[in-house]
Amino acid sequence: MLEVSGIAAFYGAAQALFGVSLCVREGEALALLGRNGMGKTTTIRAILGLTPPASGSVRFAGRPLSGLAPHRIARLGLGLVPEGRQVFPTLTVAENLVATARPGPWTVARVTALFPRLAERARQPARTLSGGEQQMLAIGRALMTNPRLLILDEATEGLAPLIRAEIWAVLGRLKAEGLSILVVDKDVRALSALADRFVVLEKGRVAWEGQGASLLADTPRLHALLGV
Ligand code: ATP
After folding, report:
1. Fewer CB atoms < 10 Å away: N or C end of the chain?
2. pLDDT of 174-209, one tens digit each?
3. E runs forming strands in the chain
4. Fold of 1-77+184-228
């Protein structure tokens, strides 16, 4: 479904990615890991055309994305839950959900069935929500675009344990329903339960790729790659 081949990306003269390749197959969950500053967010930005790759290619559903504006790429079926949530603070929860919605099976009713708290808070401005509720809203807003691939940058960063567990459970349900997922997070155990494969970045390169369980079983490598 998503094929990233040998992409390089720069911020001005500073190179952040040096030939990153990865793929997400239909119905698969892929975890993207790495310590701070290793290039996870830049990889996502490159896929979405926000930091267009200087070389290499990104294909989605067989279609090359190079040269397409980010909103056109998103419309092909890539839904982003950005780092730091970035909900629209002055809009209500209900308004946030419909702001970028596109027609498809995901509706407000289905999102609020997944996250009942969003129904309770439908008329509140998004800025009055807790961090966890804002993350639920960011996920709901991305689902309302009816994506074929859901991309989460830091799925549970900074959230309370109970909320984190709720978000992992929801991602498990979405995957079981057949949604393809690309997820960045630091929780290797939760990622290992969700994701079919891990891709670990180090200094803008893929340093390791394989099943999460085999990385979890290799303590020295886990420590070297992720510092955990
Ligand atoms: P984190 O977990 O901290 O978000 P990351 O793995 O997502 O890290 P990136 O944000 O992709 O890493 O950063 C990769 C590299 O690009 C880092 O060296 C970072 O300093 C650099 N970088 C990121 N954003 C910019 C920017 N806007 N301008 C210049 N350099 C940047």
Report:
1. C
2. 999 999 999 999 999 999 999 999 999 999 999 999
3. 2-11, 14-24, 29-33, 55-60, 63-64, 78-81, 149-153, 180-184, 197-202, 205-210
4. Rossmann fold (3.40.50)
CB 121 near ligand 1, within 6 Å: no
Contact 136, 118 (CB under 8 A): yes
**Which residue minimizes the CA distance to atom 9 of ligand 1?**
39
Asked if 143 and 106 touch (Cβ cutoff 8 Å), the reply is: yes
Centre of ligand 1 from the C-alpha of residue 39, in Å? 6
pTM of the complete model: 0.95
Q: Domain residue spans in the chain?
A: 1-77+184-228
**Ligand 1 neighbourhood includes 51 CB (under 6 angstroms):** no
Cα separation, 175 vs 150, whole angstroms: 10
